[in-house]
Design brief:
The structure holds two protein chains of two kinds. Chain A is an alpha/beta fold. Chain A is built from six helices and nine strands. Chain B has 14 helices and twelve strands. Classes of the chains: A alpha/beta, B alpha+beta. Bound molecules: adenosine-5'-triphosphate and magnesium ion.
Chain lengths: 233, 404
């Protein structure tokens, strides 16, 4: 029965950016549900509002209007502190531009989160190491972001998001800077997390071949959904 | 809370370890100058006061001094009191003195002075007067028509140019003295004393007996003051209470009490200077620490946004900036102390001098040191807290992606 009740519900979500006198309607009324255990791809041309949508889903940004609940909890209007805690304990997020702390090594960037979750330093480092090894960076644990390539940084960002096996994982073009082989490895990891741990995954991508890993595809254009279809294998 | 501290510490550590080294060194250097500024002038003034108080102790009051009760010109029964005091356990030595105003004249010149009547053999044990005679000799117990004059009034010592003096008085010169009661005497100069200090160098000394006869109080056992030396430093208060316990009516002061009054009186302007300089350094210091931290924090706005975005609590972020700020300030304090040490060593070989021989060294009291460290740390706590708190209040979107 658990897959019947949606874990994410959004209704008529809008996000308007004000830049000077111009108002950019990045999201212009988006509604859909995500069921637990789904692996959802969000696609669409550049500037269609994918990142904007994902940031709102990841509680990093607020919608201008509309409803968004996770398990019927009105997460948009949680107090700031609770929102941070919710993000820490329930959500994982891979940023399109990595968002790594420049002064922290790869492993520190990852294990700081486990530390925040009150794991001991040794435990935190251990989980971080596992996550980094999983994305193929086991030999670069102590490098700082400046000493890593774009693709490697992206993989650190992935490791950070998956290290604590979050309930819901949001990934904003997690393979944008990776070659086909490494991209495939990442997607395999996501698929494994999705199948083995039942993690719900929402991933932004614009590579058609990525869709062979997902269970559903939503297409965006100009801040609106143009298609929403299940992928049957 | 504990995990906030842990995470804050990790963030602070990596930020200091991998941050821009030049910036770090510059910040620490500036903080060390702020700290130096906080301790240097006050400790120099303190050194000056110490020197001054030392003089007061060595010449004017000894360790404990007895002065006439209010309304009395003299201590009555001085010899009796002296005997009793000398028999006290902790007392090393005691001497009586007489003090009187007079004017001295030599050739065409005339100056007003305080003439001290001392018992020469006793004075050796309570003050440094007998040891600062630069030319000639100190008085003997039998001296009657002999006088010791200070170098500043003799016109020979350093500093004499700023005071009226007698010109060129030499050993053996004859000087006319006119006392308040119009009595005139002629004295032969037996010695010239030089302590490079007004208290000694603007004074003149004659024997106690001589002043007794001038004042017409021979055989009346009177004195203007009794100066006492204790055996061990620290026994002053104890000796004072023993003396008071003897039931005398005269006033008893320890040198600390005298110094307090003197410092309050004579160094009013000095301590105003001290306070003003402290306040100014505090304001400058606080602003600098704050600005340095503020810029530092604003430069890391993006990092703060990222940390928040991945679930690091604002408390951890603030704690990390407090750690960073504390680290800078601690290093600044350490470097400041090293600089202070070098400055002190430099002043050891190139002292600040007055009158050519009065040397002043900075004396850093523990209390001043503690106070300054406390001030620095308090400022660093505020300067670590405020900017990071302001930045954590901003939305993640603004912190990470805003174009400033
Ligand atoms: N902070 C902002 N201020 C103003 N406009 C913005 C801001 N962020 C995004 N936009 C605009 O909103 C629209 C959607 O942007 P968004 O980043 O969501 O697109 P995207 O689908 O993720 O594009 P891409 O595939 O290039 O990453 C774009 O027109 C963009 O210019
Ligand atoms: Mg995007």
């Amino acid at each position: 029965m658990k897959s019947e009740e949606p874990i994410i519900k959004i209704r008529n979500l809008k996000r308007h950016y004000k830049t000077g006198k111009v108002i950019v309607k990045a999201l212009n009324g988006v509604s859909f549900d995500v069921r637990e255990g789904e692996f959802l791809a969000i696609m669409g041309p550049s500037g269609s509002g994918k990142t904007t949508l994902l940031r709102i889903l990841g509680l990093i940004d607020k919608p201008t209007s509309g409803q968004y609940t996770i398990k019927n909890l009105d997460v948009v209007n949680l107090p700031e502190e609770e929102k941070i805690f919710y993000r820490l304990t329930q959500l994982g997020y891979v940023f399109q531009d990595y968002a790594l702390v420049n002064e922290m090594s790869a492993i520190e960037n990852v294990y700081i989160i486990s530390l925040m979750e009150d794991l001991s330093k040794e435990q935190s480092q251990e989980t971080a190491k596992l996550a980094l090894e999983r994305v193929g960076l086991g030999d670069k644990l102590d490098r700082i972001p400046d000493q890593l390539s774009g693709g490697e940084k992206q993989r650190v960002a992935v490791a950070r998001a998956i290290s604590k096996t979050p309930k819901i994982l949001f990934a904003d073009e997690p393979c944008a800077n990776l070659d086909t082989k490494t991209s495939r490895q990442m997607l395999e990891i996501f698929k494994m997390l999705n199948e083995k741990y039942g993690q719900t995954i929402v991933m932004v991508t614009h590579e058609d071949w990525h869709t062979e890993f997902v269970s559903r595809i939503i297409n965006l254009k100009d801040g609106r959904i143009t298609s929403d279809k299940k992928v049957y294998k | 809370m504990f995990k906030d501290v842990k995470v804050g510490f990790l963030t602070a550590k990596s930020s200091v370890k991998r941050g821009n080294k030049k910036t770090t060194i510059f910040i620490i250097f500036v903080l060390s100058l702020i700290f130096l500024n906080l301790i240097f002038l006050p400790s120099l003034i303190n050194g000056m006061m110490k020197l001054f108080v030392g003089f007061v102790q060595d010449y004017a009051y000894g360790d404990v001094v007895i002065e006439p009760a209010d309304g009395n010109v003299y201590i009555n029964d001085a010899d009796n009191i002296l005997t009793k005091i000398r028999s006290l356990n902790d007392v090393e030595a005691a001497a009586k003195r007489l003090t009187v105003g007079a004017s001295l004249a030599y050739e065409q010149k005339e100056v007003g002075v305080t003439i001290l009547g001392v018992v020469p053999s006793d004075e050796e044990k309570v003050s440094l007067y007998p040891y600062i005679v630069k030319e000639g000799d100190f008085l003997g117990d039998l001296s009657r028509n002999e006088i010791i004059v200070g170098a500043m009034i003799a016109g020979t010592g350093p500093g004499s140019e700023i005071y009226d003096n007698l010109g060129e008085v030499k050993i053996g010169s004859l000087i006319n003295a006119t006392y308040g009661n119009n009595l005139k005497k002629i004295y032969k100069v037996k010695g010239i004393q030089e302590g490079t200090f007004e208290l000694t160098d603007l004074n003149a000394l004659v024997s106690f007996k001589e002043l007794e006869s001038v004042l017409g109080i021979e055989g009346e056992h009177k004195a203007s003051s009794i100066v006492i030396r204790v055996q061990k430093a620290g026994e002053e208060a104890d000796v004072k209470s023993q003396i008071l316990g003897m039931g005398i009516k005269d006033k008893v002061f320890t040198w600390q009490e005298k110094a307090e009054v003197l410092i309050k009186q004579a160094t009013q302007s000095m301590s105003t200077l001290d306070i003003v300089s402290k306040i100014v350094s505090l304001i400058i210091g606080a602003s600098l620490i704050f600005i340095v931290n503020y810029i530092n924090t604003l430069n890391r706005k993006k990092e703060i946004g990222i940390l928040k975005a991945v679930g690091v609590s604002p408390a951890s972020v603030i704690i990390s900036y407090i750690f960073i700020s504390l680290f800078y300030v601690m290093m600044g304090i350490i470097l400041g102390l090293v600089l202070f040490l070098f400055l002190t060593l430099y002043l050891q070989t190139n002292p600040i001098t007055f009158y050519g021989s009065l040397k002043i060294y900075p004396v850093l009291e523990l209390s001043l040191l503690m106070q300054s460290i406390l001030i620095m740390i308090t400022m660093s706590l505020i300067a670590g807290f405020l900017p990071s708190w302001l930045v954590t209040k901003e939305s993640i979107l603004d912190a990470i992606w805003s174009r400033e």
